[in-house]
Design goal:
This protein has about 190 residues and is of the alpha/beta class. It has a single domain, classed as Nucleotidyltransferase, domain 5 (2-Layer Sandwich), CATH 3.30.420. The protein has six helices and five strands; from the N terminus they run βββαβαβαααα. A hairpin with a 2-residue loop joins strand 2 and strand 3. Helix 1 packs parallel to helix 2, helix 3 crosses helix 5 and helix 4 crosses helix 5.
Amino acid sequence: MNNGFIILNKPPAKEKIILGMDPGTSVMGYGLILIKGSEVGVIQYGVIHLSKYPSHALKLKKIFDRVISIIDDFHPDEVALEAPFYGKNIQSMLKLGRAQGVAMAAALSKDIPITEYAPRKVKQSVTGNGNASKEQVASMIGAILKIEVKDKLLDATDALAVALCHHYNEGKTSSGPKSWKSFVKNNPGRVK
């Protein structure tokens, strides 16, 4: 007898893996996060060093091959990329655009949906400040995702920020923290 209570079986939380990428021609950052219900965790993050390759074409091939390998290993459901920003050097911007295009082509070849985010949008979503530095983004990513961040992996934490921005913008959470101050206030045990 259940005393008039209705027992509901709660469906298990849906899981999703998001691959965030911060394309570059010298260093490319990547980060994979797992979304399970309202929980967000890190699967893996790192950088792909490309400056050791002598030609731009070889760098693009390495980006394609490595992105395919990451996709084959982790089977992300979605990919989020940081869009190239306009700089003063047109040649650099073109090369960066090609790197992004190759990363996109790798994901598209595996039928994975792609979303691009402007660097300012990523920073705003994660830190509350669209002009935040790489170090500020890394610090906030470390606090939100409970990981230790190393200076050598700033491109990887940028990629995790892109993935987290994508998650926030899908409506899975109301939004990221509005500022570092509000994050600390709402998470006193997570920041030292």
